Amino acid sequence: MDLLAIVSSLAVVMMHTSGNATYLGVVVNKFTSDGVWSVLTNILFAFAVPIFFMQSGAKVLNYRDRYDTKSFFTKRISKVVIPFVFWSVLAYFLFGKWQSVPLLKSFLAESIVGPYCFFYNIIAFYLSVPVLSLLTKYGSDRLLKGAICLIVFFKSVLPLLAVAFGYSMPFINALPLGGGYLQYFLAGWYVANHEIAPATKKKLYLLALLMLVLEIGLTLGLSYRTPRLPYYNYSLGYIKNFYDIANFPEFCVVLALFTWMKHSEDKIRAWRFKDHLPLLAGITFGIYLLHPFVIYYLMPVLQKYLGASPIYVRYFAYPLVIYLVSAALTVLLRKIPGAKYVLP
Protein backbone atom coordinates (compact mmCIF):
# COMPACT_ATOMS: atom_id res chain seq x y z
CA MET A 1 0.00 0.00 0.00
CA ASP A 2 3.04 2.30 -0.32
CA LEU A 3 1.83 3.80 -3.58
CA LEU A 4 -1.58 4.45 -2.06
CA ALA A 5 0.01 6.36 0.83
CA ILE A 6 1.97 8.50 -1.64
CA VAL A 7 -1.06 9.20 -3.83
CA SER A 8 -3.17 10.06 -0.78
CA SER A 9 -0.61 12.50 0.59
CA LEU A 10 -0.46 14.25 -2.79
CA ALA A 11 -4.27 14.37 -2.87
CA VAL A 12 -4.30 16.06 0.55
CA VAL A 13 -1.96 18.77 -0.71
CA MET A 14 -4.03 19.17 -3.88
CA MET A 15 -7.19 19.82 -1.85
CA HIS A 16 -5.50 22.28 0.48
CA THR A 17 -3.92 24.30 -2.35
CA SER A 18 -5.70 24.01 -5.70
CA GLY A 19 -8.90 23.00 -3.94
CA ASN A 20 -8.83 26.24 -1.97
CA ALA A 21 -10.57 28.89 -4.05
CA THR A 22 -8.84 31.73 -2.20
CA TYR A 23 -5.36 30.35 -2.84
CA LEU A 24 -6.17 29.56 -6.45
CA GLY A 25 -7.66 33.01 -6.92
CA VAL A 26 -11.01 31.87 -8.31
CA VAL A 27 -14.69 32.39 -7.54
CA VAL A 28 -16.78 29.33 -6.66
CA ASN A 29 -19.99 30.77 -5.18
CA LYS A 30 -21.17 31.33 -8.75
CA PHE A 31 -20.38 29.37 -11.88
CA THR A 32 -17.12 30.34 -13.59
CA SER A 33 -14.86 28.29 -15.85
CA ASP A 34 -11.87 28.92 -13.58
CA GLY A 35 -13.86 28.10 -10.45
CA VAL A 36 -14.66 24.64 -11.81
CA TRP A 37 -10.97 23.76 -11.42
CA SER A 38 -11.25 24.21 -7.66
CA VAL A 39 -14.61 22.44 -7.37
CA LEU A 40 -13.42 19.40 -9.35
CA THR A 41 -10.26 19.22 -7.25
CA ASN A 42 -12.28 18.81 -4.06
CA ILE A 43 -14.45 16.15 -5.69
CA LEU A 44 -11.73 14.13 -7.41
CA PHE A 45 -9.30 14.18 -4.48
CA ALA A 46 -11.83 13.78 -1.66
CA PHE A 47 -10.56 10.21 -1.23
CA ALA A 48 -7.39 11.38 0.52
CA VAL A 49 -8.43 11.29 4.17
CA PRO A 50 -10.77 8.27 3.90
CA ILE A 51 -7.91 6.31 2.35
CA PHE A 52 -5.81 7.14 5.42
CA PHE A 53 -8.67 5.84 7.57
CA MET A 54 -8.84 2.60 5.58
CA GLN A 55 -5.09 2.12 5.76
CA SER A 56 -5.21 2.63 9.51
CA GLY A 57 -7.97 0.06 9.88
CA ALA A 58 -6.05 -2.41 7.72
CA LYS A 59 -2.89 -1.99 9.81
CA VAL A 60 -4.07 -1.84 13.42
CA LEU A 61 -7.24 -3.91 13.77
CA ASN A 62 -5.16 -7.07 13.89
CA TYR A 63 -2.66 -5.67 16.40
CA ARG A 64 -3.39 -8.57 18.80
CA ASP A 65 -1.46 -10.83 16.43
CA ARG A 66 1.69 -8.78 17.04
CA TYR A 67 1.62 -7.29 20.54
CA ASP A 68 -0.55 -6.61 23.58
CA THR A 69 -2.92 -3.68 24.09
CA LYS A 70 -0.47 -1.71 26.24
CA SER A 71 2.14 -1.88 23.48
CA PHE A 72 -0.48 -0.85 20.94
CA PHE A 73 -1.35 2.33 22.81
CA THR A 74 2.31 3.09 23.51
CA LYS A 75 3.09 2.92 19.81
CA ARG A 76 0.08 5.02 18.81
CA ILE A 77 0.90 7.69 21.38
CA SER A 78 4.52 7.95 20.29
CA LYS A 79 3.86 7.80 16.54
CA VAL A 80 0.65 9.83 16.28
CA VAL A 81 -0.49 11.63 19.43
CA ILE A 82 2.81 13.25 20.41
CA PRO A 83 3.57 14.60 16.90
CA PHE A 84 -0.01 15.83 16.58
CA VAL A 85 0.11 17.72 19.88
CA PHE A 86 3.59 19.12 19.24
CA TRP A 87 2.83 20.54 15.79
CA SER A 88 -0.57 21.80 16.91
CA VAL A 89 0.97 23.78 19.77
CA LEU A 90 3.71 25.09 17.47
CA ALA A 91 1.10 26.19 14.92
CA TYR A 92 -0.91 27.86 17.67
CA PHE A 93 1.94 30.30 18.25
CA LEU A 94 3.35 30.58 14.71
CA PHE A 95 -0.07 31.17 13.15
CA GLY A 96 -0.92 33.87 15.70
CA LYS A 97 -3.82 32.00 17.30
CA TRP A 98 -2.48 32.88 20.75
CA GLN A 99 -3.49 36.50 20.23
CA SER A 100 -7.22 35.79 20.32
CA VAL A 101 -8.10 32.29 21.56
CA PRO A 102 -6.80 30.29 24.56
CA LEU A 103 -4.72 27.27 23.59
CA LEU A 104 -6.94 24.62 25.15
CA LYS A 105 -10.12 26.12 23.72
CA SER A 106 -8.60 26.34 20.25
CA PHE A 107 -7.22 22.80 20.46
CA LEU A 108 -10.50 21.27 21.58
CA ALA A 109 -12.40 23.20 18.89
CA GLU A 110 -10.11 21.73 16.19
CA SER A 111 -9.41 25.27 15.01
CA ILE A 112 -5.61 25.50 15.19
CA VAL A 113 -4.73 23.65 11.99
CA GLY A 114 -7.62 22.82 9.68
CA PRO A 115 -6.08 19.72 8.06
CA TYR A 116 -5.38 18.25 11.50
CA CYS A 117 -9.07 17.42 11.97
CA PHE A 118 -7.98 14.00 10.68
CA PHE A 119 -6.19 13.34 13.96
CA TYR A 120 -9.25 13.76 16.15
CA ASN A 121 -11.02 11.01 14.22
CA ILE A 122 -8.02 8.72 14.08
CA ILE A 123 -7.32 9.03 17.82
CA ALA A 124 -10.95 8.30 18.64
CA PHE A 125 -10.68 5.24 16.44
CA TYR A 126 -7.52 4.09 18.26
CA LEU A 127 -9.39 4.27 21.56
CA SER A 128 -12.00 1.93 20.11
CA VAL A 129 -9.55 -0.53 18.55
CA PRO A 130 -9.24 -2.91 21.56
CA VAL A 131 -12.97 -3.60 21.28
CA LEU A 132 -13.20 -3.52 17.48
CA SER A 133 -10.21 -5.85 17.15
CA LEU A 134 -12.24 -8.53 18.92
CA LEU A 135 -14.87 -8.20 16.21
CA THR A 136 -12.32 -8.66 13.42
CA LYS A 137 -10.48 -11.46 15.25
CA TYR A 138 -13.35 -13.56 16.53
CA GLY A 139 -16.38 -12.37 14.58
CA SER A 140 -17.47 -14.11 11.40
CA ASP A 141 -17.10 -12.49 7.99
CA ARG A 142 -20.87 -12.32 7.77
CA LEU A 143 -21.06 -10.44 11.07
CA LEU A 144 -18.39 -7.97 9.98
CA LYS A 145 -20.00 -7.33 6.60
CA GLY A 146 -23.34 -6.87 8.34
CA ALA A 147 -21.82 -4.30 10.71
CA ILE A 148 -20.24 -2.39 7.81
CA CYS A 149 -23.52 -2.38 5.85
CA LEU A 150 -25.47 -1.22 8.89
CA ILE A 151 -23.05 1.65 9.55
CA VAL A 152 -23.01 2.68 5.89
CA PHE A 153 -26.82 2.72 5.77
CA PHE A 154 -27.23 4.84 8.90
CA LYS A 155 -24.21 7.10 8.52
CA SER A 156 -23.78 7.42 4.74
CA VAL A 157 -27.06 6.66 2.99
CA LEU A 158 -29.78 8.06 5.26
CA PRO A 159 -28.10 11.46 5.89
CA LEU A 160 -27.85 12.11 2.15
CA LEU A 161 -31.45 11.02 1.58
CA ALA A 162 -32.59 13.27 4.42
CA VAL A 163 -30.97 16.27 2.74
CA ALA A 164 -32.05 15.35 -0.77
CA PHE A 165 -35.71 14.97 0.17
CA GLY A 166 -35.77 17.60 2.92
CA TYR A 167 -36.87 15.14 5.60
CA SER A 168 -36.02 15.31 9.27
CA MET A 169 -34.56 11.99 10.46
CA PRO A 170 -33.38 12.39 14.08
CA PHE A 171 -33.08 8.62 14.45
CA ILE A 172 -30.07 8.66 12.12
CA ASN A 173 -27.86 9.38 15.13
CA ALA A 174 -29.55 6.72 17.26
CA LEU A 175 -27.19 3.97 16.10
CA PRO A 176 -24.65 3.57 18.95
CA LEU A 177 -22.13 2.03 16.56
CA GLY A 178 -20.76 3.94 13.63
CA GLY A 179 -19.47 7.40 14.51
CA GLY A 180 -16.15 8.84 13.45
CA TYR A 181 -16.16 7.35 9.93
CA LEU A 182 -16.00 3.83 11.36
CA GLN A 183 -17.21 2.39 8.05
CA TYR A 184 -13.87 3.27 6.47
CA PHE A 185 -11.75 1.68 9.20
CA LEU A 186 -13.69 -1.58 9.14
CA ALA A 187 -13.92 -1.72 5.35
CA GLY A 188 -10.17 -1.10 5.10
CA TRP A 189 -9.44 -4.08 7.31
CA TYR A 190 -11.93 -6.27 5.46
CA VAL A 191 -10.57 -5.52 1.98
CA ALA A 192 -6.96 -5.86 3.11
CA ASN A 193 -7.60 -9.29 4.62
CA HIS A 194 -10.01 -10.83 2.12
CA GLU A 195 -9.95 -11.72 -1.52
CA ILE A 196 -12.69 -10.00 -3.48
CA ALA A 197 -14.22 -12.03 -6.29
CA PRO A 198 -13.51 -10.66 -9.81
CA ALA A 199 -17.21 -10.27 -10.56
CA THR A 200 -17.73 -8.35 -7.33
CA LYS A 201 -14.79 -6.07 -8.11
CA LYS A 202 -16.20 -5.25 -11.54
CA LYS A 203 -19.55 -4.36 -10.01
CA LEU A 204 -17.83 -2.23 -7.36
CA TYR A 205 -15.74 -0.38 -9.94
CA LEU A 206 -18.81 0.29 -12.09
CA LEU A 207 -20.76 1.54 -9.07
CA ALA A 208 -17.87 3.79 -8.05
CA LEU A 209 -17.66 5.27 -11.55
CA LEU A 210 -21.38 5.97 -11.54
CA MET A 211 -21.13 7.56 -8.09
CA LEU A 212 -18.24 9.76 -9.22
CA VAL A 213 -20.22 10.94 -12.23
CA LEU A 214 -23.16 11.55 -9.90
CA GLU A 215 -20.98 13.60 -7.54
CA ILE A 216 -19.67 15.79 -10.33
CA GLY A 217 -22.98 16.15 -12.14
CA LEU A 218 -25.13 16.96 -9.12
CA THR A 219 -22.53 19.23 -7.50
CA LEU A 220 -22.07 21.35 -10.62
CA GLY A 221 -25.68 21.01 -11.73
CA LEU A 222 -27.38 22.04 -8.49
CA SER A 223 -24.87 24.29 -6.74
CA TYR A 224 -25.60 27.37 -8.81
CA ARG A 225 -29.38 27.23 -8.91
CA THR A 226 -31.19 30.33 -7.64
CA PRO A 227 -32.53 30.46 -5.02
CA ARG A 228 -30.27 28.11 -3.08
CA LEU A 229 -31.70 24.73 -2.18
CA PRO A 230 -32.66 24.23 1.47
CA TYR A 231 -30.89 21.70 3.69
CA TYR A 232 -27.77 21.50 1.52
CA ASN A 233 -24.24 22.36 2.71
CA TYR A 234 -22.98 25.48 0.89
CA SER A 235 -20.09 26.10 3.29
CA LEU A 236 -17.53 26.22 0.44
CA GLY A 237 -19.76 28.35 -1.77
CA TYR A 238 -21.26 25.34 -3.55
CA ILE A 239 -23.01 22.13 -2.51
CA LYS A 240 -20.69 19.74 -0.70
CA ASN A 241 -23.13 16.97 0.24
CA PHE A 242 -22.75 14.74 -2.80
CA TYR A 243 -18.99 14.23 -2.44
CA ASP A 244 -18.81 14.57 1.34
CA ILE A 245 -16.72 11.69 2.66
CA ALA A 246 -19.44 10.80 5.16
CA ASN A 247 -21.96 10.06 2.42
CA PHE A 248 -22.58 7.00 0.28
CA PRO A 249 -21.29 8.17 -3.14
CA GLU A 250 -17.81 8.97 -1.85
CA PHE A 251 -17.72 5.80 0.25
CA CYS A 252 -18.21 3.81 -2.95
CA VAL A 253 -15.45 5.73 -4.74
CA VAL A 254 -12.97 5.29 -1.90
CA LEU A 255 -13.80 1.61 -1.40
CA ALA A 256 -13.26 0.93 -5.10
CA LEU A 257 -9.95 2.82 -5.18
CA PHE A 258 -8.65 1.01 -2.10
CA THR A 259 -9.73 -2.36 -3.54
CA TRP A 260 -8.16 -1.64 -6.92
CA MET A 261 -4.85 -0.59 -5.37
CA LYS A 262 -4.81 -3.64 -3.11
CA HIS A 263 -5.31 -6.00 -6.03
CA SER A 264 -2.76 -4.14 -8.16
CA GLU A 265 0.13 -4.81 -5.78
CA ASP A 266 1.56 -7.60 -7.94
CA LYS A 267 1.75 -5.26 -10.93
CA ILE A 268 3.29 -2.52 -8.79
CA ARG A 269 6.01 -4.91 -7.61
CA ALA A 270 7.07 -5.25 -11.25
CA TRP A 271 7.78 -1.53 -11.61
CA ARG A 272 11.39 -0.50 -11.99
CA PHE A 273 11.20 2.08 -9.24
CA LYS A 274 9.27 -0.16 -6.82
CA ASP A 275 12.23 -0.18 -4.42
CA HIS A 276 11.86 3.58 -3.93
CA LEU A 277 8.19 3.40 -2.97
CA PRO A 278 8.78 2.47 0.71
CA LEU A 279 11.18 5.40 1.06
CA LEU A 280 8.67 7.83 -0.39
CA ALA A 281 5.80 6.35 1.60
CA GLY A 282 7.90 6.72 4.75
CA ILE A 283 7.84 10.51 4.52
CA THR A 284 4.12 10.92 3.74
CA PHE A 285 3.17 11.35 7.40
CA GLY A 286 5.78 14.09 7.70
CA ILE A 287 4.34 15.76 4.62
CA TYR A 288 0.90 15.66 6.19
CA LEU A 289 2.24 17.26 9.38
CA LEU A 290 4.33 19.94 7.69
CA HIS A 291 2.35 20.98 4.64
CA PRO A 292 0.05 23.40 6.57
CA PHE A 293 3.17 25.28 7.71
CA VAL A 294 4.61 25.32 4.20
CA ILE A 295 1.30 26.61 2.83
CA TYR A 296 1.12 29.30 5.52
CA TYR A 297 4.58 30.71 4.75
CA LEU A 298 5.14 29.83 1.10
CA MET A 299 1.72 30.30 -0.49
CA PRO A 300 1.83 34.14 -0.30
CA VAL A 301 5.13 34.00 -2.18
CA LEU A 302 3.73 31.69 -4.83
CA GLN A 303 0.67 33.90 -5.21
CA LYS A 304 2.87 36.96 -5.59
CA TYR A 305 4.90 35.51 -8.46
CA LEU A 306 2.35 33.18 -10.07
CA GLY A 307 -0.94 34.85 -9.20
CA ALA A 308 -1.26 36.44 -12.64
CA SER A 309 -0.35 33.26 -14.52
CA PRO A 310 -2.95 31.13 -16.33
CA ILE A 311 -5.21 29.00 -14.15
CA TYR A 312 -3.62 25.72 -15.28
CA VAL A 313 -0.17 26.94 -14.23
CA ARG A 314 -1.35 27.87 -10.73
CA TYR A 315 -3.38 24.67 -10.49
CA PHE A 316 -0.39 22.40 -10.94
CA ALA A 317 2.43 24.62 -9.65
CA TYR A 318 1.01 25.37 -6.20
CA PRO A 319 0.52 21.76 -5.00
CA LEU A 320 3.72 20.53 -6.67
CA VAL A 321 5.89 23.15 -4.95
CA ILE A 322 4.16 22.73 -1.58
CA TYR A 323 4.48 18.95 -1.78
CA LEU A 324 8.15 18.94 -2.75
CA VAL A 325 9.11 21.52 -0.14
CA SER A 326 7.17 19.62 2.55
CA ALA A 327 8.93 16.40 1.53
CA ALA A 328 12.35 18.07 1.58
CA LEU A 329 11.69 19.60 5.00
CA THR A 330 10.63 16.21 6.34
CA VAL A 331 13.89 14.64 5.22
CA LEU A 332 16.01 17.53 6.52
CA LEU A 333 14.29 17.94 9.88
CA ARG A 334 14.55 14.24 10.60
CA LYS A 335 18.32 14.64 10.64
CA ILE A 336 18.02 16.80 13.77
CA PRO A 337 18.70 14.77 16.95
CA GLY A 338 15.43 13.95 18.69
CA ALA A 339 13.29 14.94 15.71
CA LYS A 340 12.07 11.35 15.36
CA TYR A 341 9.81 11.91 18.37
CA VAL A 342 7.80 14.65 16.66
CA LEU A 343 8.38 13.73 13.02
CA PRO A 344 8.26 9.92 12.87
Features:
globular, 67% helix, 344 residues, mainly alpha
Q: What is the general shape?
A: globular
**Terminus-to-terminus distance:** 18 Å
Structural class: mainly alpha
Weakly predicted, low-confidence segments = none
Structural account:
The protein is mostly helical and about 350 residues long. The chain is built from 15 helices and no strands. It has helices at about 1-15, 20-25, 35-45, 50-60, 70-95, 105-110, 115-140, 140-165, 180-195, 200-220, 250-260, 265-270, 275-280, 285-305, 310-335. Helix 9 packs parallel to helix 11. The relative contact order is 0.15.
Write the topology of this structure.
Blueprint: H1 2-17, H2 21-24, H3 33-44, H4 48-60, H5 69-94, H6 103-108, H7 117-138, H8 141-165, H9 182-193, H10 198-222, H11 248-262, H12 265-269, H13 277-281, H14 284-306, H15 311-333
Helix pairs in contact: 1-4, 1-14, 1-15, 3-10, 4-7, 4-9, 5-7, 8-9, 9-11, 10-11, 14-15
Give a quick summary of the entry:
The protein has helices at residues 2-17, 21-24, 33-44, 48-60, 69-94, 103-108, 117-138, 141-165, 182-193, 198-222, 248-262, 265-269, 277-281, 284-306, 311-333.
